[in-house]
Design a protein that fits this description.
mainly beta; S-adenosyl-L-methionine-dependent methyltransferases; seven-stranded mixed β-sheet; 48% strand; disordered N terminus
Length: 1083
């Protein structure tokens, strides 16, 4: 290992040069908004829920930030719309439910901090909104109400009391007259009464007692006359009566007697409680819903084994069952059955019409579509909210022109019309929850300005207006920045504009330097993330004229252009899977015949073409797994005569060919897991290892050097027709590591050097035929102990942290992080500070950050960020990649989560003491959900959510830092790293992955505004105009370390210096270049 010390930075000459390099703020500050990309702002929704009509008033529940959900009233005018009372003072709301009118008052259940869930009432005034009484003194009783009913002048409802549980109560509207009616399930157990329905002189409801589950009960208004009607599903099982409905003096409902949900009826006696079921399966309507009394018959929707979900009716007898098969041979799924005068309305589906509004006069001939509101027949459109008011039917509908808007009908096609187009954007669910208030209809709607708020209508456009903007808090839209990548020393990312279009942006970390990658007027909509390949950015976009086609950019708006209109006109080729091989870029795209094939480009329109030529049928189709091998690509594609096989292309028709028909004939070998095995350090050509099948054996390990002769079975790991199923192929120390099953040892750890002899089992981690299933392989580079890290299960410790240094003796469990058979499932391996960092879960501490130096003793938790079993990083599903972003050796950034502060931006210096929340961007326990994404231009780029801007891109100016940019090019995978450039200190540099006895040059200068090619096959991240050679030498090993003295000169604060290495192993060999490193001078 060679150590070189540059103690004077080439004297003052270099110091003076540094003064001419890019400058940025030298000291870390508060994160600031990079740009409010989606600056659209609407009001936060109050989400009103119309509850009931009280005289000439409409009562509804709405949300405000200062009150939460509370009761409001309206007389149909803006002036007469206001909050009745903040029943539960503060922002939590009172959870109002079960509102029912009795006399001059509306009664409801409300929950307060002081009283818990209790009975309240209102007369429509603030003073008249008051607690009736406390059934259970204090705040301990829970919110348990399943409806109310007014029966014989009193209010019946269910409520919880600590001594009797959730039972049936009664009230005459006074404190003295509010009391327990009957303890149906004696003691502290609960009967949970609810779903009330009055039929004649009886109140029916659902409850449970000590001997039966949820069953049908009735009451004559006395405790003695309150009893279970029938134990429909005998014993402790429940029949769960549902949709209790009165028709012609009898009760009808849905219940399950043990043979599935069916239609039942009851006259209030056990003998008179029966299932309505005709003889034979054809007369057995199952799972009935939307029970509705209309005319002389009960109507409902039910499922039939041959007819699907259709409309049914009955006269109350099995013989009188009748089905209306609106879509013979299919299903129409009718619902929302609503009666208006002498007509029954409902919504239903038909394959030629989609969901539409139907009407019936009770006869098969009179059952038809009222009006084809949406002529496009969108099967996903559902007319909803059917409610009767002022002699008309109000509902929501989408005519495919105006979006989902309020409609009204008088029952005729001519009288069915849209009332008013309220919401131009047609987002969300449209108007909902129509309530008849006598002279007006109250409903909830969103006009794209105020949010979802209370509206009123009389059925005319003029009489339809916003009643009140209850929640006036601003609701900023978000651009949701993501898919962050480095392009030189700048950041490229995706974000949505105010119209919801996804666009590619580029930024140098300043607002002025943050712009869309498109020329003015191009109006691009990006359909995928950017592929940053060499000197250019490739992506798929739609300019509104040419469909989704391939585009290219040099990192400037003026240098952004369409590569080709592959499918002429407005059709789309939908390009994807961009891969760089040599000086060319390959990708897949669809032609006008919808055949997806491989294309190649040199970055010009003239040089963009299908690799197999334009002759119809000449190219293999459905390509996938494009993988570079030198200046060619290997890919998997389909041919009608050969199935799915492995192909190779150099970009020309002659050089595009089948490598081998591995599964001879029309069968498919279905190659997958194509993985590069670099061998330049051994003086050998690179190989591709992959998994494939043939006629004689299932999925096994294959190899290819890009020639037909060199494409072959590498090893039949599981001999015979059975499969070894090699997967998780990963390069480490000159070999490909993977898991495979040889039929003897289960799925275990294997490795291959590209030869049959060198392909072998390295460790049977779970001895015997059981499988340890090693996965998540990640290799370290340049650590004191380079190892391959992964998770596996040895049968004794669960899925835990394992590693190998490349030998059988060094392979095994590194540490049982969550002791015993439970699993810590380590993931997200990231190298920093000469250690491997990852996340792991323990039963004692939840999901937290861990690190290892490759030894058991050196494997430890960073900090229990959210103390106890709660996770400091959220859930496993919230772990993002990269989840840890380093700005040098001193600091790394991540998103942490605590109960006190929510999800915020955290920073660590690698120690428990130096790990802390960096900024509370959303104060208190609210979450900014800050996600650090990358470092560029001396700044940390992150996405975060704020109440003022929504989820937008933010930046944090960093002090002294040292961070990588770009990637290596050429046969050597050179990796350059550098620590912070601290004034008066030393920046540690390390170059690894060098082929011994190579000539190496370390260059410096300003970071290039965009990557450029200086030497063939390489990419430069240093500006050629400022480039200088810092050192040149011959390597003797694979790693070089150097220290760079930074002058203690305050004039250097905030200055950026870019470094990069070039290497060549012999004059006849191609050049290799490392990634770049940017050092930002600071303290």
């Amino acid at each position: 290992m060679l150590r070189i010390s540059f103690t004077r930075l080439r004297g003052m000459a270099l110091a003076l040069l540094l003064l001419g390099l890019p400058f940025a703020t030298a000291r870390a500050q508060q994160p600031k908004l990079l740009k409010d990309i989606n600056a659209k702002v609407i009001g936060f929704a109050s989400n009103p829920r119309p509850m009931t009509r009280l005289g000439s008033l409409g009562l509804f529940v709405a949300t405000r930030p200062d009150t939460g959900d509370e009761v409001w009233r309206t007389d149909g005018t803006p002036q007469g719309t206001y909050l009745l009372k903040d029943i539960n003072p503060g922002p939590k709301g009172s959870l109002v439910s079960s509102m029912t009118v009795m006399g001059q008052h509306a009664y409801f259940i409300a929950v307060t901090k002081q009283h818990g869930a209790e009975l309240w009432r209102t007369d429509g005034s603030t003073l008249g909104t008051q607690l009736v009484t406390e059934v259970q003194p204090g705040p301990s009783n829970l919110w348990n109400s399943f409806g109310m009913a007014v029966f014989k002048g009193r209010l019946f409802f269910g409520l919880e009391n600590k001594s009797v549980g959730h039972e049936l109560f009664v009230s005459d509207g006074t404190a003295q007259g509010t009391k327990l009616f009957k303890d149906i399930h004696p003691g502290a157990a609960s009967s949970a009464p609810g779903r009330f329905q009055i039929v004649g002189q009886k109140l029916f409801f659902v409850a449970s007692d000590a001997s039966a589950g949820q069953e049908l009960w009735s009451s004559d208004g006395t405790a003695k006359g309150t009893r279970r009607v029938a134990d429909i599903n005998p014993g402790y099982a429940s029949s769960s009566p549902w949709e209790l409905t009165e028709h012609s003096g009898k009760l009808y409902f849905r219940a399950d007697g043990g043979k599935g949900p069916g239609l039942w009826t009851s006259d209030g006696t056990a003998k008179g409680t029966t299932r309505i079921q005709g003889a034979g399966a054809d007369k057995d309507p199952a799972r009935p819903t939307s029970l509705t009394s209309f005319g002389q018959r009960l109507w409902f929707t039910a499922w039939h084994r041959t007819k699907g979900s259709e409309l049914w009716s009955t006269d109350g007898t099995a013989k009188g069952l009748q089905v209306y098969d609106l879509h013979p041979g299919g299903f129409s799924s009718p619902d929302r059955l609503t009666v208006l005068g002498r007509k029954l309305f409902f919504r239903a589906w038909h394959p030629k019409l989609g969901f539409e509004l139907w009407v019936s006069d009770g006869t098969p001939a009179g059952t038809k579509v009222l009006k084809d509101i949406n002529p496009k027949g969108n099967a996903f459109w559902l007319p909803g909210g059917l409610n009767v008011a002022m002699g008309k039917l109000f509902f929501s509908a989408n005519d495919s022109v105006h979006g989902n808007q309020p409609w009204v009908t008088d029952g005729t096609a001519q009288g069915t019309k849209m009332i008013k187009a309220i919401q131009p954007s047609n987002k969300g669910n449209g108007p909902q929850l129509y309530l008849n208030c006598g002279s007006f209809v109250l409903f909830a709607a969103d006009d794209d300005v105020a949010g979802r708020e209370p509206w009123v209508t009389d059925g005319t456009a003029k009489g339809t207006q916003l009643l009140a903007n209850v929640n006036t808090e601003a609701n900023p839209f978000s651009s949701h920045p993501g898919d962050w990548k480095q392009f030189g020393d700048r950041a490229v990312f995706l974000a949505n504009d105010a119209q919801g279009k996804s666009q590619i942006w580029i930024s140098d970390g300043t607002t002025k330097g943050t712009e869309i990658l498109s020329k003015p007027g191009q109006n691009l909509k990006t359909t995928s993330g950017a592929a940053l390949l060499g000197e250019r950015i490739y992506f798929a976009a739609d300019d509104g004229r040419s469909g989704v086609e391939p585009w290219i950019s040099d990192g400037t708006p003026l240098g952004t252009k369409r590569l080709a209109d592959i499918v002429p006109g407005s059709g789309s080729s939908s390009p994807r899977s961009f891969v760089r091989a040599g000086s060319k870029v390959f990708f897949t795209a669809s032609n006008a015949k919808l055949e997806r094939v491989v294309w190649v480009t040199d970055g010009t329109a003239a040089g963009t073409r299908p690799v197999a030529g334009t002759k119809p049928g000449s190219a293999p189709t459905m390509p996938r797994f494009l993988t570079a091998l030198g200046d060619r690509v290997l890919f998997v594609a389909r041919n009608n005569a050969l199935g799915e096989e492995l192909y190779v292309s150099d970009g020309s028709p002659a050089g595009t060919k089948l490598l081998k028909d591995i599964h001879v004939g029309r069968g498919s070998s279905s190659p997958s897991e194509l993985t590069l095995l670099p061998r330049a350090s051994k003086g050998l050509s690179d190989l591709i290892l992959f998994r494939a099948s043939n006629r004689l054996r299932d999925a096994e390990l294959y190899v290819s050097d890009g020639s037909p002769a060199g494409t072959k079975l590498l090893k039949d790991i599981h001999p015979g027709l059975r499969s070894s199923s090699p997967r998780e192929l990963t390069f480490f120390q000159g070999r490909i590591w993977f898991q495979a099953d040889d039929g003897i040892h289960g799925n275990e750890l294997w490795a291959s050097d590209g030869t049959a002899k060198g392909t072998k089992l390295y460790a049977d981690l779970w001895p015997g035929t059981a499988s340890s299933n090693p996965k998540g392989f990640t290799a370290s580079q340049g650590m004191a102990l380079d190892r391959l890290y992964f998770q596996a299960n040895d049968g004794k410790h669960g899925e835990e942290l394992f590693s190998t240094a490349g030998t059988a003796g060094s392979t095994g469990l590194l540490r049982d992080i969550d002791p015993g058979l439970s699993s810590s499932r380590p993931v997200g391996f990231t190298q920093w500070q000469g250690r491997m960092w990852f996340t792991a879960h323990t039963q004692a501490q939840g999901l937290e950050i861990w690190s290892t130096d490759g030894t058991a003793a050196g494997t430890r938790i960073l900090l229990d960020i959210n103390p106890g079993r709660a996770s400091g990083l959220g859930s496993n599903q919230q772990i993002l990649h990269p989840w840890l972003v380093a700005s040098g050796e001193r600091r790394a950034w991540f998103r942490g989560s605590t109960a006190a502060h929510g999800s915020e931006l955290w920073v660590t210096d690698g120690s428990a003491k130096g790990t802390k929340m960096a900024f509370d961007l959303a104060p208190g326990n609210s979450s900014s959900e800050a996600i650090p994404s990358l470092v560029a231009s001396g700044r940390l780029f992150l996405s975060a959510k704020s109440s003022q801007f929504g989820n937008e891109p933010f930046v944090l100016d960093l002090g002294a830092s040292g961070y990588p940019i770009g990637e290596a090019s050429g046969p050597m995978r050179l990796r350059l790293s550098g620590s912070e450039a601290i004034l008066g200190g030393k920046s540690r540099l390390q170059l690894s992955m060098i082929t011994p006895r190579s000539t190496v040059a370390l260059v410096f200068g300003a970071a290039a505004t965009r990557p450029r090619s200086i030497l063939p096959g390489t990419i430069s991240y240093v500006d050629p105009a400022t480039l200088g050679v810092l050192a040149a030498y011959a390597s003797t090993g694979s790693t070089i370390q150097a220290s760079l003295q930074i002058p203690n000169d305050l004039r250097l604060l905030g200055v950026h210096l870019a470094l990069q290495a070039y290497a060549q192993h012999g004059l006849a060999q191609p050049f290799s270049s490392s990634n770049g490193v940017v050092l930002k001078a600071g303290r």
